[in-house]
From TrEMBL, chain A:
<keyword id="KW-0813">Transport</keyword>
<protein>
    <recommendedName>
        <fullName>Spermidine/putrescine import ATP-binding protein PotA</fullName>
        <ecNumber>7.6.2.11</ecNumber>
    </recommendedName>
</protein>
<dbReference type="InterPro" id="IPR050093">
    <property type="entry name" value="ABC_SmlMolc_Importer"/>
</dbReference>
<keyword id="KW-0067">ATP-binding</keyword>
<dbReference type="InterPro" id="IPR005893">
    <property type="entry name" value="PotA-like"/>
</dbReference>
<keyword id="KW-1278">Translocase</keyword>
<keyword id="KW-0547">Nucleotide-binding</keyword>
<dbReference type="GO" id="GO:0016887">
    <property type="term" value="F:ATP hydrolysis activity"/>
</dbReference>
<comment type="similarity">
    <text>Belongs to the ABC transporter superfamily. Spermidine/putrescine importer (TC 3.A.1.11.1) family.</text>
</comment>
Automatic annotation (TrEMBL), chain B:
<dbReference type="InterPro" id="IPR051789">
    <property type="entry name" value="Bact_Polyamine_Transport"/>
</dbReference>
<keyword id="KW-0813">Transport</keyword>
<dbReference type="Pfam" id="PF00528">
    <property type="entry name" value="BPD_transp_1"/>
</dbReference>
<feature type="transmembrane region" description="Helical">
    <location>
        <begin position="183"/>
        <end position="202"/>
    </location>
</feature>
<keyword id="KW-0472">Membrane</keyword>
<protein>
    <recommendedName>
        <fullName>Spermidine/putrescine transport system permease protein PotC</fullName>
    </recommendedName>
</protein>
<keyword id="KW-1003">Cell membrane</keyword>
<feature type="transmembrane region" description="Helical">
    <location>
        <begin position="68"/>
        <end position="91"/>
    </location>
</feature>
<feature type="transmembrane region" description="Helical">
    <location>
        <begin position="135"/>
        <end position="154"/>
    </location>
</feature>
Length: 357, 266
């Protein structure tokens, strides 16, 4: 066993009939890490989580937990616990009984069990609710109990299957912070599945972006956002402008490109094979308007405006291309630009990522 | 819904309802009423009496028939509910089961076959096997035809229950058996109970098969009642019927109350 590896997924494939849900996926999750599997629905992220939990067997490949191969073990013999999307709290048991369930199956003595249940209820601030039943709780409270139940047996890895998706917006934000704090406090490795990029960026140490049954990119949130490796990642994480560009010359990870806007400059590239057609990705917030325009400067016409509170989103047309531009409203009643107005736009070379086709 | 579209405002709805309920319950009311008739003749009222109840309860042949019926129904209920529970578990919790559709049809098929056909077939089979123990024959036959009745509510309950609970139990270190005993079974209990209830009632009520298989000493209650009618009806018969109606009402009320409570919880 190599130190510090909580989960190792190696060359795992999964077929459902003739449908390939996962294709030769390999990655490792480090100990004490908050690791997120992110992707659109149908990308295989839940299948992957269910394979770590033991509810699905990989068609090929191996999965190890702290160095021990577990792919063939049934769920009850794996020292991992799951927080289900539906929470799956047992409706016929009190919250106390729900949390004690795993401990009883592990053969913990009664006194130790009771102490652990009390500790867990305390941890999720639900001590006053021990005798209640799940149907007497709100969504957020159920979420907490599901967490307490999964954490009680001190799992080596905690698996979370879109646990926040059933909560309303305000609560979801609060639970994000709480989850993150809980992970730091317990030091347990969290594997979190979500389709929500904000959640992933906000909470994770590292994110694994899955698409079409394959890993698209693994990295820290800022790696994923600022340096997407391909078009899929750039498109799925955050909003971006894709522009057609022509690579004039290539120098390592830098590419000299000519864009449809008539500009020519050098930018970081990923996956470009050589000179020819490519795509450039430019995030809306990296384009400056008027006095904020710097670097490559050109003009365009405001076509639409969406006021979002903290930001105003503009669609700006230039040379037949429409760019999404996001401008932070730094001052109250910050200046906003009317539709039809001609404005200066600008972006810096280093804001651009050139991606292979 | 506006008042105009309420079905109660349709012309003749009240009358139809009255006729319907009269048609359904008048015979039962008549039976109960005449069970308290003092007269030897069933249809001539001559005063209130409970003597036919005393007579019925003192009738050894009747009590024997009741005992046979309860024994057969009791054992057949346990067997058929257990078999139905196993079948429902396999059919509901195995997504990659081969012949799943066929298996389900085979379990439910006895519901569609005419009972007389199955009864004759059972009789012939038992004769060829030289299977002669009367009570055992009844138990085996009843267990078989009660199974689909027990199966339907259990299957419905299992289908309505998310597999997440079982997965959560196994995730929390429960062996498959512990998960079944502590999570699945308590959650599908209303369905199991309803299935057992149905099986019990179907067995108690059965005439065709029981009559076909009956030997001396294994006369069930419906078979005995039928034999009484052949010798002419007596008010005693009314008393027996009334007792059966009361027993059924108690069981049905209990079943409804229990399943309503379980539904509220789930």
């Amino acid at each position: 066993m190599r130190r510090g590896e909580a989960v190792e997924v190696f060359n795992v494939s999964k077929m459902f009939g003739t449908y390939q849900a996962l294709d030769q996926v390999s990655f490792t999750i480090k100990e004490n890490e908050f690791f997120t599997l992110l992707g659109p629905s149908g990308c295989g992220k839940t299948t992957l989580l269910r394979m770590i939990a033991g509810f699905e067997r990989p068609s090929e490949g191996s999965i190890s937990l702290f160095g021990a191969e577990i792919a063939s073990l049934p769920p009850h013999k794996r020292h991992v616990n799951t927080v289900f999307q539906s929470y799956a709290l047992f409706p016929h048991m009190s919250l106390e009984q729900n949390i004690a369930f795993g401990l009883e199956n592990l053969g913990w003595a009664k006194a130790k069990r009771q102490a652990r249940v009390a500790e867990m209820l305390e941890l999720v601030h639900m001590s006053d609710f021990a005798k209640r039943r799940p149907d007497q709780l709100s969504g957020g409270q159920r979420q907490r109990i599901a967490l307490a139940r999964a954490l009680a047996p001190e799992p080596q890895v905690l698996l979370l299957d879109e646990p926040l998706s059933a909560l309303d917006l305000k609560l979801r934000q609060a639970m994000r912070d709480e989850l993150r704090a809980l992970q730091r406090k317990t030091g347990i490795t969290f594997v979190f599945v979500t389709h929500d990029q904000d959640e992933a960026l906000d909470m994770s140490d590292r994110i694994c972006v899955l698409g079409q049954g394959q890993i698209q990119q693994i990295g820290t949130p800022s790696d994923i956002y600022e340096e997407p490796q391909n078009r899929f990642v750039a498109d799925f994480i955050g909003a971006t402008n894709f522009l057609e560009a022509e690579v004039v010359s290539l120098n390592g990870d830098q590419a000299q490109i000519r864009t449809a806007l008539g500009l020519e400059f050098t930018a970081a590239q990923k996956g470009v094979q050589g000179p020819g057609a490519a795509t450039m990705s430019l995030r809306p917030e990296k384009i400056g308007l008027e006095e904020q325009a710097s670097g490559n400067v050109f003009t365009g016409t405001i076509r639409s405006r969406n006021y979002m509170g903290g930001f105003t989103h503009y669609a700006v047309e230039t040379a037949g291309i429409t760019l999404q531009v996001s401008r932070r409203n730094a001052l109250s009643h910050a200046e906003s630009y009317d539709i039809g107005r001609e404005v200066k736009l600008g972006f810096r070379d280093e804001s651009v990522r050139v991606l292979g086709q | 819904m506006s008042a105009n579209h309420d079905v109660r405002h349709y012309p003749g709805a009240g009358l139809m309802t009255t006729v319907f309920f009269l048609w359904l319950y008048a015979p039962i009311v008549v039976v109960i009423w005449f069970s308290f008739n003092e007269n030897r003749l069933v249809s001539v009222w001559s005063g209130f009496s409970t003597k036919w109840y005393t007579a019925a309860l003192a009738n050894d042949a009747l009590m024997d028939a009741l005992r046979v019926s309860l024994t057969v129904a009791g054992i057949a209920t346990v067997i058929s509910t257990t078999v139905a529970l196993c079948a429902a578990m396999v059919l509901s919790r195995n997504s990659d089961l081969r012949f799943a559709k066929l298996s389900e049809t085979v379990v439910n098929l006895p519901l569609l076959l005419p009972e007389i056909v199955v009864a004759v077939a059972t009789l012939i089979l038992f004769s060829q096997l030289e299977f002669t123990n009367g009570l055992l024959r009844l138990i085996v036959a009843h267990s078989a035809f009660c199974t689909p009745f027990a199966f339907l509510p259990i299957r419905a309950r299992l289908q309505g229950m998310s597999a997440d609970y079982e997965e959560a139990a196994q995730d929390l270190y429960a062996t498959p058996f512990t998960a079944f005993r502590r999570v699945t079974l308590p959650l599908i209990m209303p369905g199991v109970f309803a299935g057992a209830m149905l099986a019990f009632v179907i067995s108690m009520d059965d005439f065709i098969t029981s009559n076909m298989l009956a030997t001396g000493g294994t006369t069930t209650l419906p078979v005995y009642i039928f034999s009484l009618i052949k010798r002419g009806t007596t008010p005693e018969l009314n008393a027996i019927s009334t007792l059966l109606i009361v027993a059924s009402l108690v069981i049905a009320t209990l079943a409804l109350a229990l399943s309503a409570r379980a539904m509220r919880r789930a």
